[in-house]
Amino acid sequence: MKFPTIKTKKDSLYITLFFLFSIACIAGLRYEQRLEMQKGIAEKIIRFHVIANSDTKADQNLKLAVRDAVGIKMSGLLKDAADRSRSEAVIRKNMEDMKQTAEKVIAERGYDYDVDICLTDTDFPVKTYGAYTFPAGNYEALEIVIGAGKGHNWWCVMYPNMCFSDTMYEVIDEDARSSLKRVLSEDEYQQVLASGDYQVKFKSFEILKGLYDEK
Q1: Angle ∠(77,137,151) on CA atoms, nearest 5
Q2: Is the pLDDT of residue 130 over 90?
Q3: What angle separates helix 186-193 from helix 2-42, to the nearest 10 degrees?
C-alpha cells in the first residue's frame, strides 16, 4: 500500500528537479544577458562617487557639501563634452582643481580631513534615478574619499549629466533624458527604463523543500 505513494513522490521530485533545472538554465541565460548589457552601459557612462569620513550627522552633511561644490562645478565643465572619452579628458585635466574645491569646503567648515580623488573602476549596487534604473556592476567613476572614508556614500551619473542642474542635484530633466538616449543603444536605454528588480526568486525551491519535508 505504501509503494505507490513513494513512487508518486519520486515522480513529483523528478518533475520538480526538471522544472528547477529548466528555470536555472533560463535564469543563467538571463543573467548573462544582463551582465553583457551592464558592461555595455558601463562603457558609455561615468559615475560620481563621494564617500564620507563617517556616519555622524556632521560628516554626512560635509559629504553633501563636497558633493554640491564639486558636482556643480564639474557639470559646468562637462557641459560641452560630446562623448565619454572627452569627458574623461576634462575630468583628468581638472582633477587637482576638484581636490582643492573639496578641501576648501572641508576647511571652511572647520575640518582638516584629507581628500583622495581619482577616476577609478568601482562596484555599484542597483541605483534608480527617477524612472531610470542602472544595474549593479563595475563602472568608471570620479571618486572622492573624505578622511577615513568609512561613512555612507553618495553616487550618481556624471556623464551624461544626471547629477546636477544649476544648484539642484539628481535632476532628471529633458536634457538628461536626451543625452542618455544618445549615448546608449536602444536596448540599453530600454533596460535602464525597466524595473529595478534584478533579483531572481525561485519559489520552486520551496516546493522542493516541501517534498523533502513530507513524512
Answers
A1: 70
A2: no
A3: 120
